[in-house]
Amino acid sequence: xxxxxxxxxxILAHVGRTAIEDLPLEDCLGRTLAAPVIAKRDQPPFAxxxxxxxxxRSADTPGLLKLVGEAGAGHAFGGALKAGACARIFTxxxxxxxxxxxxxxxxxxxxxxxxxxxxxxxxxxVRPAGLDFAAGATLLRSGVVLAGGDLALAAxxxxxxxxxxxxxxxxxxxxxxxxxxxxxxxxxxxxxDSASFGVAGLAQAWGAASHRGAVLRDDAxxxxxxxxxxxxxxxxxxxxxxxxxxxxxxxxxxxxxLGATILFDKVSLRPGKPTWFAxxxxxxxxxxxxxxxxxxVCARLFLRPVIAAMLGGDAAATVRPRRARLSAPLPPxxxxxxxxxxxxxxxxxxxxxxxxxxxxxxxxxxxxxxxDALIIRPGDCAASEAGxxxxxxxx
Length: 395
Description:
Blueprint: H1 4-12, E1 20-24, E2 37-38, E3 48-49, E4 53-56, E5 63-71, E6 85-89, E7 101-104, E8 109-111, E9 114-117, E10 126-127, E11 138-140, H2 148-156, E12 161-165, E13 169-174, E14 179-180, E15 191-192, H3 195-205, E16 209-212, H4 220-230, E17 236-240, H5 251-257, E18 261-264, E19 269-270, E20 276-280, E21 283-288, H6 292-310, E22 322-326, E23 337-346, E24 352-356, H7 365-370, E25 373-377, E26 389-394
Parallel strand pairs: 5-6, 13-16, 13-17, 14-15, 17-21, 19-23, 22-24
Antiparallel strand pairs: 1-12, 2-11, 3-10, 4-6, 4-7, 5-9, 8-9, 18-20, 20-21, 22-26, 23-24, 23-25, 25-26
Helix pairs in contact: 1-6, 3-6, 4-5
């Protein structure tokens, strides 16, 4: 058996970036940026008024000033302010040449073209050029997953298109004689497929284009054919189930029949010991156990960093743990690294707290659905008390 870190490193060593697409800005939400966004000019490109009022020379205040013109958003004052002059100005308008401050309209009195202005300090209510960002600044770095605010920032630079990574194609092959598709008639000795929906949903949330195949029976020929069909159409095939060493576990054998090389077939992990990874030329196969919680935990530990790497992101960041305090004691752990499903909360002081689910059986879908964190228990670690600090991963 190899460690979780060794297994992850082995997979990532055989992962490359996907292609790059040039898309309209409005189609980039949730996509991963593939090239940095660099400002071509200052924003704002001119000193601008932050309030409605009057543009003045601070050296002329306090005093009675002559109104000589107006500046509005998108409409600059055409000349320069001379001594004793002011200009009406509105929020967002360029500051006239010669002016260095804004007297807000609430503080002045006006009679015709004469404006009584109180003392105003230089720079008052003025947004300097480049306040938001300066020309040449890197505003968005490659690898960021684009949120609405990021699109606004890109638009503020004048960009109407962005280079983004093509979503990795993840094909999920799953099944077993005991599994039927939701909506089908389940026999008394069968259960509904849930793991493939969970893995596909997580993969999509992490930025991949995921596709679930039909539920397969425990038939070596069927599994081999499904793998052979999926491999050339995918960046990674995830096989759920058939990962153990029983007579009805055909997944690894099917990969080997197709000429794939198994890089590892056991991980010192609970749940998820039978996780395996194989290469067939440039094609990749990740095998995870069929128990739903095992499949979903393994997806979090291995599939998420793989997708991040394919998108050009920081794979290490996806598995960087956060410290949290236990809300309940935990017994000592055995030799395998364990990942316990848990509910995370934040207390009044901003401390992250985690409450492990009382039942950690790897078949329980409800426990994983209710969890938003995994508590990491190193191999052979001692018991922990409530209040102890532990490492966690978000789900």
